[in-house]
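Hello,

Our lab assistant flagged a job as stuck in the queue for most of the afternoon. It eventually completed. Since we weren't sure the result was trustworthy after the delay, we are filing this so someone can double-check. Below is the sequence as submitted and the structure that was eventually returned. Let us know if re-running is recommended.
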Amino acid sequence: TRQGRNCNYYDDPNLQRDIRGFVVDCLEKQIRFGLRTDRVYVLGHAKNLQFLSALNEEIHFCERLVGLPHPRFVMQYQLKKKGEHLSAYLRAFGQE
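-- returned structure --
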């Protein structure tokens, strides 16, 4: 939080820079678990996806990123459309 408000890493360029090494380290550790890297799902289909896409362009941690709306965003701002979002999740997960 910053000044009592939620602060996302992607809203602050300095914070993005400061956490970059940590993010790369975490991704590398998770990949070593044996995770599939042909398709990676990203919760947050706007700024979070944009940050991770740029990182993936640089370090190539996966073949393809699939952005999905963050569940909190759906429940907080798009509750009336939650069925549409659920369908989008199911379509994305069903792709092979």
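-- support follow-up --
The delay was a queue issue, not a problem with the job. The result is valid. The radius of gyration is 15 Å. Helices lie at 13-32, 47-59, 71-77, 82-94.
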